[in-house]
């Protein structure tokens, strides 16, 4: 089966290293015979989550659109920057809103229990977004119940780690990327999506 994989970055900043990482992962997934959809969270703006706002106006339409994308893909890859040893407010807010959607026939957070997830991050510093990735894993695994692959890619000193074509320059990072892609495509190929 040719798996459908959704790819996006937790940053929408111009020149973002994580947007570069998301594009690189999408390219390699396509080479590995996956059907890849790449999106920008900038195209799905959401207000800061507020319980009173949800009570007054309901869940925003863009949260439902993002939910639909998740439930129609076998795998989801998130490229996550690190902000103050955590994830971006944009990514956290996106996950918070989507997690508020529960259809009448569903168990809580059922949406997150079907697809397989993979994560990676890039930063100009020495840690390569690793602390943010660990926080993201905690949110996704412990709070949302996602299956997140142990393989992940962390790109440190990102300003020197990508060449002019957006490819990685360091052998150990290239090997990690290939290992991630191989496992991700294999696991996503075995996911059975719910009928929509």
UniProtKB/TrEMBL annotation:
Ranges for domain NADPH-dependent FMN reductase-like: 3-157
GO CC annotation terms, alphabetical: cytosol
Short name of any one Pfam family annotated for the protein: FMN_red
Highest taxon above the source species: Bacteria
InterPro entries: Flavoprotein-like_sf, FMN_Rdtase-like_dom, NAD(P)H-dep_reductase
GO MF, one annotated term: FMN binding
Database matches in PANTHER family: CHROMATE REDUCTASE, NAD(P)H-DEPENDENT FMN REDUCTASE LOT6
Protein name listed in UniProt: NAD(P)H-dependent FMN reductase
């Amino acid at each position: 089966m040719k798996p459908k994989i959704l790819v996006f970055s937790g940053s929408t900043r111009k020149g973002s290293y994580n947007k570069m990482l998301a594009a690189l992962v999408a390219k390699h997934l396509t080479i590995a015979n996956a059907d890849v959809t790449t999106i920008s969270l900038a195209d799905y703006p959401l207000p800061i989550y507020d319980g009173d706002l949800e009570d007054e106006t309901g869940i925003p339409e863009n949260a439902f659109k993002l939910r639909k994308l998740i439930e129609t893909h076998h795998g989801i890859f998130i490229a996550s920057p690190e902000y103050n040893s955590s994830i971006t407010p944009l990514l956290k807010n996106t996950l918070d809103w989507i997690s508020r959607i529960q259809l009448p026939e569903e168990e809580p957070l059922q949406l997150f229990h079907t697809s397989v997830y993979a994560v990676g991050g890039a930063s100009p510093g020495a840690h390569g977004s690793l602390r943010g990735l660990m926080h993201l894993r905690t949110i996704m695994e412990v709070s949302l119940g996602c299956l997140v692959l142990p393989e992940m890619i962390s790109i440190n000193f990102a300003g020197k780690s990508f060449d002019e074509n957006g490819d990685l320059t360091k052998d150990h990072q290239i090997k990690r990327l290939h290992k991630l892609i191989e496992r991700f495509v294999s696991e996503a190929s075995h996911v059975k999506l719910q009928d929509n």
